[in-house]
Amino acid sequence: MTYTAPDAATLDAMLSTVKYDASGLIAAIAQQHDTGEVLMIAWMNAEALRETLENGRVCYYSRSRKKLWRKGETSGQIQHLKEARLDCDADAVLLLVEQIGVACHTGRRSCFYRAFTPTGLVELTKPEIDPAKLYHTHG
Question: Is RNA-binding set as a keyword in this record (predicted)?
Protein backbone atom coordinates (compact mmCIF):
# COMPACT_ATOMS: atom_id res chain seq x y z
CA MET A 1 0.00 0.00 0.00
CA THR A 2 1.60 3.24 -1.17
CA TYR A 3 0.17 6.61 -0.23
CA THR A 4 -0.87 8.90 -3.09
CA ALA A 5 -1.63 12.52 -2.28
CA PRO A 6 -4.87 14.01 -3.61
CA ASP A 7 -4.84 16.96 -5.98
CA ALA A 8 -5.21 20.42 -4.41
CA ALA A 9 -8.94 20.84 -5.11
CA THR A 10 -9.78 17.40 -3.72
CA LEU A 11 -7.62 18.02 -0.65
CA ASP A 12 -9.33 21.36 0.00
CA ALA A 13 -12.77 19.76 -0.33
CA MET A 14 -11.88 16.96 2.08
CA LEU A 15 -10.29 19.29 4.65
CA SER A 16 -13.38 21.53 4.63
CA THR A 17 -15.35 18.69 6.28
CA VAL A 18 -13.00 18.34 9.28
CA LYS A 19 -14.32 19.59 12.65
CA TYR A 20 -11.59 20.96 14.89
CA ASP A 21 -12.10 21.59 18.60
CA ALA A 22 -12.17 25.05 20.21
CA SER A 23 -8.35 25.07 20.16
CA GLY A 24 -8.28 24.32 16.44
CA LEU A 25 -7.14 20.71 16.96
CA ILE A 26 -8.29 17.24 16.00
CA ALA A 27 -7.30 13.98 17.72
CA ALA A 28 -5.08 11.77 15.56
CA ILE A 29 -4.60 8.07 16.29
CA ALA A 30 -1.59 6.41 14.67
CA GLN A 31 -1.96 2.70 13.89
CA GLN A 32 0.57 0.39 12.22
CA HIS A 33 -1.01 -0.25 8.81
CA ASP A 34 -0.20 -3.95 8.47
CA THR A 35 -0.59 -5.25 12.04
CA GLY A 36 -3.32 -3.01 13.44
CA GLU A 37 -1.14 -2.15 16.45
CA VAL A 38 -2.23 1.18 17.97
CA LEU A 39 0.95 3.21 18.33
CA MET A 40 -0.01 6.59 19.74
CA ILE A 41 -2.47 9.44 19.91
CA ALA A 42 -1.51 13.03 19.23
CA TRP A 43 -3.09 16.21 17.94
CA MET A 44 -3.17 17.90 14.56
CA ASN A 45 -4.14 21.40 13.55
CA ALA A 46 -5.26 22.22 10.01
CA GLU A 47 -1.69 22.90 8.86
CA ALA A 48 -0.37 19.58 10.23
CA LEU A 49 -3.21 17.58 8.67
CA ARG A 50 -2.74 19.32 5.32
CA GLU A 51 1.03 18.75 5.36
CA THR A 52 0.53 15.08 6.23
CA LEU A 53 -1.97 14.54 3.42
CA GLU A 54 0.14 16.49 0.91
CA ASN A 55 3.47 14.74 1.42
CA GLY A 56 2.75 11.46 3.23
CA ARG A 57 5.10 12.04 6.17
CA VAL A 58 3.12 12.41 9.37
CA CYS A 59 3.15 15.80 11.02
CA TYR A 60 1.41 16.63 14.30
CA TYR A 61 0.87 19.77 16.34
CA SER A 62 2.72 19.90 19.65
CA ARG A 63 0.48 21.49 22.27
CA SER A 64 3.39 21.96 24.69
CA ARG A 65 5.71 23.58 22.14
CA LYS A 66 2.85 25.26 20.25
CA LYS A 67 4.30 24.39 16.87
CA LEU A 68 4.27 21.71 14.18
CA TRP A 69 5.96 18.47 15.14
CA ARG A 70 7.15 16.33 12.27
CA LYS A 71 7.27 12.85 13.77
CA GLY A 72 10.89 11.74 13.89
CA GLU A 73 12.50 15.16 13.35
CA THR A 74 14.49 14.76 16.58
CA SER A 75 14.43 11.01 17.19
CA GLY A 76 14.55 9.66 13.63
CA GLN A 77 11.47 7.53 14.41
CA ILE A 78 9.45 8.55 11.34
CA GLN A 79 5.87 7.71 10.39
CA HIS A 80 5.04 7.30 6.70
CA LEU A 81 1.35 7.66 5.92
CA LYS A 82 -0.34 4.77 4.15
CA GLU A 83 -3.95 5.90 4.55
CA ALA A 84 -5.88 8.50 6.55
CA ARG A 85 -9.47 8.05 7.71
CA LEU A 86 -11.91 10.55 9.18
CA ASP A 87 -14.39 9.32 11.78
CA CYS A 88 -18.18 9.61 11.51
CA ASP A 89 -18.33 12.90 13.44
CA ALA A 90 -15.40 14.36 11.45
CA ASP A 91 -13.60 15.17 14.70
CA ALA A 92 -10.94 12.44 14.86
CA VAL A 93 -8.44 11.04 12.37
CA LEU A 94 -7.06 7.52 12.11
CA LEU A 95 -3.63 7.44 10.48
CA LEU A 96 -2.54 4.08 9.09
CA VAL A 97 1.23 4.39 9.09
CA GLU A 98 4.50 2.61 8.51
CA GLN A 99 6.32 3.27 11.77
CA ILE A 100 10.10 3.42 11.43
CA GLY A 101 11.54 2.47 14.83
CA VAL A 102 9.58 3.14 18.00
CA ALA A 103 6.58 5.46 18.32
CA CYS A 104 6.77 6.31 22.03
CA HIS A 105 9.14 8.84 23.59
CA THR A 106 9.81 6.23 26.30
CA GLY A 107 11.59 4.07 23.71
CA ARG A 108 8.71 1.61 23.32
CA ARG A 109 7.04 0.61 20.08
CA SER A 110 3.63 1.83 21.31
CA CYS A 111 2.60 4.50 23.81
CA PHE A 112 -0.03 2.04 25.09
CA TYR A 113 2.31 -0.19 27.07
CA ARG A 114 0.49 -0.27 30.43
CA ALA A 115 -2.66 -2.25 31.24
CA PHE A 116 -5.18 -1.57 34.00
CA THR A 117 -5.54 -4.77 36.05
CA PRO A 118 -7.24 -5.70 39.34
CA THR A 119 -3.86 -5.34 41.07
CA GLY A 120 -2.79 -2.08 39.43
CA LEU A 121 -1.04 -0.95 36.27
CA VAL A 122 1.03 -3.64 34.59
CA GLU A 123 3.87 -2.79 32.20
CA LEU A 124 3.37 -4.91 29.07
CA THR A 125 6.55 -4.02 27.19
CA LYS A 126 10.02 -2.77 27.97
CA PRO A 127 11.78 0.01 26.04
CA GLU A 128 13.41 -1.11 22.80
CA ILE A 129 15.79 1.83 22.87
CA ASP A 130 17.04 4.18 25.58
CA PRO A 131 15.12 7.49 25.30
CA ALA A 132 18.37 9.39 25.88
CA LYS A 133 19.68 7.85 22.64
CA LEU A 134 16.49 8.84 20.80
CA TYR A 135 16.77 12.47 21.79
CA HIS A 136 20.53 12.74 22.26
CA THR A 137 20.20 13.69 25.93
CA HIS A 138 21.65 12.38 29.16
CA GLY A 139 19.52 11.00 31.97
Answer: no
